[in-house]
Fold:
Amino acid sequence: MRKVILASHGSLAEGMYSAVKMIMVNCENISAYGLDTYGNPSDIYEIVRDEIIQHPEDEYIILCDINGGSVHSHLMQLCTNKNVYLIVGMTLGMVLEISFSSADLGIRDVLRKAITSSIENTLLYDADSVKKEIEKGLEDDALW
Structure:
C-alpha cells in the first residue's frame, strides 16, 4: 500500500489535506503533520518513523514544504529506508497526482509524474500573456 505523508511549517500540511479531502473524499492513505499542531519537527519525525516501523511493507511518499527547512531536514533521515521517498516543494497538484495514480504504476514513475506535472503547471501570467490566453479562449469558443 502507498501512503502519503504531508508535512510542513505552520498548518500548510493540514490545509493541503483539507483541500485534497474536498476533491477526493476518501483520503485514508494520507496523513498531515504541521508544526502548528505538533510544535517540533522531532515530534513529527517520531510519529512518521513509528508508522514506517509498524508497516514496513508499505511505501511512503513524504511531501514537505521547504527544501532545507527543519521539517524536511528531520524527515529526510527516513529516506534511509528503501520504502520511503521524500519530495520537497509540495503542491496540491502533486498530492492529487500521487493520490490518483494507478497502483500498477511503479513508485519512481509516480514520483516523476508528480514532479513533472508540478513543473508544467507552474506558470506566470501577466497582462500580455493573459490577453493572449483570453483571445485563445475566445477563438476556441468560436469553433463550437
Summary: The CA atoms of residues 136 and 142 lie 10 Å apart. The helical segments are 12-24, 35-38, 41-54, 70-76, 92-100, 107-120, 127-143.
